[in-house]
Design goal:
Elements (H helix, E strand, L loop, with lengths): L3 H11 L4 E4 L6 H8 L6 E4 L3 H15 L3 E5 L3 H4 L2 H10 L3 E7 L19 H6 L4 E4 L6 H13 L5 E7 H4 L28 H13 L3 E5 L2 H4 L3 H11 L2 E4 L14 E4 L6 H7 L4 E5 L19 E6 L9 E2 L2 E4 L2 H11 L6 H22 L8 H11 L5 E4 L3 H9 L9 E3 L9 H11 L5 E6 H6 L4 H6 L4 E7 L4 H11 L16 H8 L2 E5 L2 H13 L4 E6 L13 H4 L18 E2 L6
Parallel strand pairs: 1-2, 1-3, 3-4, 4-6, 5-6, 7-8, 7-10, 8-9, 10-11, 11-13, 12-20, 14-15, 14-16, 16-17, 17-19, 18-19
Helix pairs in contact: 1-2, 3-5, 3-17, 9-13, 11-13, 12-14, 15-16, 15-22
Organism: Phyllobacterium trifolii
Pfam families: TPP_enzyme_C (PF02775), TPP_enzyme_M (PF00205), TPP_enzyme_N (PF02776)
InterPro entries: DHS-like_NAD/FAD-binding_dom, THDP-binding, Thiamin_PyroP_enz_cen_dom, Thiamin_PyroP_enz_TPP-bd_dom, TPP-bd_CS, TPP_enz, TPP_enzyme_TPP-bd
C-alpha cells in the first residue's frame, strides 16, 4: 500500500532531485521507505549530523542550480538545521528542508516538550527561511511541495522548510484520489527571469561609454543566474577591471589580463588597490556586503555606479546607484551586450597589469619560504600545482578563505570554488564536500580548513569514506583560533582564549583520519608538502593532509606584519573597522 512517504519521494524524483542529504527519524521513516523504492532515480545520503545535511544540500544546489534537499526529524534534528539554513538564506541558495513533526492533534502538547521533542518549529523556521509551511492535510501536500520548489527557485532564491506531521507522513496515499504533478519551470533556479526596461539600459550604456577606468564587481548572483557566459562577453567588451566577491569567484577566469581576483580584506591585494582607481563601478549580482565593499568604504564618493540585481531591495541599500538595473543578471547582461560596442582603455589595462605584477611579486616571496612552521602560502603554492581545472575547491570560514583566494586561481569560468560566506560559519567544508562529491562523482574535491573549523565536523569524514568519495581534506593547523588571536592581539593586546592545544596534547587530525579508515598524512616541513599531496591525490577515497603552519600568519594584507612586529600606530578601538559608512548618492560621470 502506497503512503505519503511515497508521494513525497515521487514528487522529489519528478522534480529531478537525485540526492537527499539528512538523518532519519521515527517521524520521517515513511519518506525513507518511499526513497528505497525509487533508488534508480533518487538516493539518500546519510549524514552524521543534521546541520551538516544542510551544508551538503547547499553544495549540491550551488553546483547544479537545483534546490538542495535535506531531511531531518522533529525537535533536535530540526533545530540543528539552523546554521545551514541561515547560510543558504544569506547567500541566496535554493534549498528545501523536509522536516518531521509531531502528529497534528498533538498541537497542544508541543509547548515545552510535553510531547517528546516538541517545540514551535514553524515559528523557528519562519525566522531563518525564505518561507516555511506546516502541512495541514494530505490533500494540501502536493500543492505545498510545488509551492516549496517555486519559492526556493524564484528571485531571490533561498531555503524553505516543509514541516510534515507524523500522522500525515504515515497516511495512506490513494493515488486515484490524489493526483500529483510538478511545475517543471521550478526544477532549476531561477524560476523566473526579469529584465530592465530600455530606458535604464540606455542610461547604463551611456555611463559605460563615458567611463575611462570602468570596473566590474561580480558577486554570487552571477552563478545564481547561470550568467558566466554573458559576463565573459560583457567583460571583453568593457575592457576594464574585473574583480569578484569570494562567492563570485569563477565569474571570469582569473588568468585574464583584466581580472584581478577577489575583492575582500582576505582577498587580492591588486583588487583592493585597483578598485579605488575606477571612475565607474558596476556591481553585478553583488549585494555590496561588508567584506566585498571593504567595510562599506566602497563605492568611493567620486565613483559612478551601476547595480545589476534581481532583488529590488538591493538597489540602494548602502548607497544610491547612479543607474539601477533591476532584473535577472543574465537577462540584463544580454541586453547590455547587445547594445554596447567594444570599449578601449589601453592605459587602464596597462595599469591593471602593472599592479597585478606587483602583487604577484609580493606573493612570490611568500610561496618560496622555507620557514618552519610552514608558511600557508607555501602550502597553497604546492596545492595549486596539483589542481586540475575541473577540481572543486571548498573553503571553510576564517583565514582558509583568504589563503584560497590569494593562491588558488580560478583557471576558467564557472563555479568551482565554494565559500560559506552567507553566514561565515566554521565547519562548512567537510560536509559540503560530501554534497559536492556526490553531485559530481567523477571530480576530485579539495577542502581547505583551519584546525578550528575542521574540528566542527570531523565526523563527516566517515560519510566521505562510506561513499568512497575522492576528497582531499587539507587542514592548516596552527594550534589556535587564528582570527580570534589576531583580534584579541590588535584590539586588546592580550591573547586570552584562542589556543586549541598545549604541548602535551596536540590534536592529530591525520591520525584521527587514519583511525576512521582514511588515509592521513602529517606535514611539518616544506619538503614534505609535495609528497604528502601527491599521495593524497592518488587515493581512490578520501584523505586528510594535516599541515603544521605558522601560528602568526594571516592573509589580511593590512594586518600581515602586526602579529610578528607589533603595531607602530595606535591600536584602533574594537568595532572601528566595522562602522557603517554614511549612505550616499553616487555621481554620474561628466558628459
Amino acid at each position: 500500500m502506497a503512503h505519503i512517504g511515497d508521494l513525497v519521494s515521487e514528487m522529489l524524483a519528478q522534480y529531478g532531485v537525485e540526492l537527499i542529504f539528512g538523518m532519519p527519524g521515527g517521524q520521517t521513516t515513511a519518506l525513507h521507505d518511499g526513497i528505497s523504492r525509487r533508488t534508480d532515480r533518487i538516493r539518500h545520503i546519510l549524514m552524521r549530523d543534521e546541520r551538516n545535511a544542510a551544508y551538503a544540500a547547499d553544495a549540491y544546489a550551488r553546483l547544479t542550480g537545483k534546490p538542495g534537499v535535506c531531511d531531518v526529524t522533529v525537535g533536535p534534528g530540526a533545530n540543528l538545521l539552523s546554521a545551514g539554513f541561515v547560510e543558504a538564506l544569506n547567500a541566496s541558495i535554493p534549498m528545501i528542508g523536509i522536516v518531521g513533526e509531531l502528529p497534528l492533534d498533538w498541537l497542544p502538547l508541543k509547548d515545552k516538550g510535553i510531547a517528546s521533542q516538541g517545540f514551535d518549529q514553524l515559528t523557528f523556521f519562519k525566522s531563518i527561511s525564505k518561507e516555511a509551511w506546516l502541512v495541514p492535510s494530505v490533500a494540501a501536500l502536493p500543492e505545498l511541495i510545488r509551492t516549496a520548489f517555486r519559492t526556493a527557485t524564484s528571485p531571490r532564491q533561498g531555503p524553505v522548510a516543509l514541516i510534515i506531521p507524523h500522522d500525515i507522513f504515515d497516511a495512506e496515499w490513494d493515488e486515484e484520489k490524489i493526483k500529483i504533478a510538478i511545475d517543471d519551470r521550478a526544477i532549476r533556479a531561477p524560476y523566473l527571469r526579469s529584465a530592465p526596461p530600455a530606458g535604464p539600459i540606455q542610461e547604463a550604456i551611456s555611463l559605460i561609454r563615458r567611463a575611462k577606468r570602468p570596473a566590474l564587481v561580480c558577486g554570487g548572483g552571477v552563478h545564481g543566474s547561470d550568467a558566466t557566459g554573458d559576463v565573459g562577453v560583457f567583460a571583453e567588451k568593457l575592457q576594464g577591471l574585473v574583480v569578484t566577491s569570494l562567492t563570485g569567484r569563477g565569474a571570469v577566469a582569473e588568468t585574464l589580463p583584466y581580472a584581478a581576483g577577489a575583492l575582500n580584506p582576505l582577498g587580492s591585494w591588486a583588487a583592493i588597490e585597483l578598485i579605488k582607481e575606477a571612475d565607474l563601478v558596476i556591481w553585478c549580482g553583488s549585494k555590496a556586503s561588508q567584506n566585498t565593499a571593504m567595510n562599506w568604504t566602497l563605492p568611493l564618493p567620486e565613483q559612478a555606479t551601476i547595480t545589476i540585481d534581481a532583488d529590488p531591495l538591493e538597489h540602494g541599500r548602502t548607497f544610491r546607484p547612479t543607474v539601477p538595473l533591476f532584473g535577472d543578471v543574465r537577462e540584463t547582461l544580454s541586453l547590455l551586450n547587445a547594445a554596447l560596442d567594444n570599449q578601449s582603455h589601453p592605459q587602464w589595462i596597462e595599469r591593471i597589469s602593472a599592479v597585478k605584477a606587483e602583487g604577484e611579486e609580493q606573493k612570490r616571496i611568500e610561496i618560496v619560504s622555507d620557514q618552519v612552521p610552514i608558511s600557508p602560502p607555501r602550502a597553497m603554492f604546492e596545492l595549486a600545482k596539483r589542481l586540475g581545472e575541473d577540481d572543486i575547491v571548498i573553503s571553510d570560514a576564517s583565514f582558509s578563505a583568504g589563503w584560497i583566494a590569494n593562491f588558488l586561481p580560478a583557471k576558467k569560468a564557472g563555479r568551482s570554488f565554494l565559500y560559506a560566506r552567507g553566514q561565515g560559519g566554521l565547519g562548512y567544508s567537510t560536509p559540503a564536500a560530501v554534497g559536492a562529491a556526490a553531485t559530481r562523482p567523477g571530480v576530485r574535491v579539495v577542502t581547505v580548513a583551519g584546525d578550528g573549523g575542521f574540528s566542527y565536523t570531523i565526523g563527516e569524514l566517515a560519510s566521505q569514506l562510506q561513499h568512497k568519495q575522492r576528497v582531499v581534506n587539507i587542514v592548516l593547523n596552527n594550534g589556535r583560533l587564528g582570527w580570534i588571536q589576531l583580534w584579541q592581539d590588535i584590539f586588546f593586546k592580550n591573547v586570552q582564549s584562542a589556543l586549541l592545544e598545549n604541548q602535551s596534547c596536540k590534536p592529530g587530525f591525520a591520525a584521527a583520519a587514519q583511525g576512521l579508515g582514511l588515509e592521513g598524512f602529517y606535514v611539518e616541513t616544506p619538503d614534505q608538502i609535495g609528497p604528502a599531496l601527491d599521495k593524497a591525490f592518488a587515493c581512490d577515497g578520501p584523505s586528510v593532509v594535516e599541515i603544521r603552519i605558522d601560528d602568526l600568519a594571516t592573509p589580511i594584507h593590512s594586518f600581515k606584519r602586526r602579529m610578528k612586529e607589533g603595531a607602530s600606530e595606535p591600536r584602533p578601538r574594537p568595532g572601528t573597522v566595522y562602522k557603517l559608512r554614511d549612505w550616499k548618492i553616487s555621481p554620474a560621470l561628466e558628459e
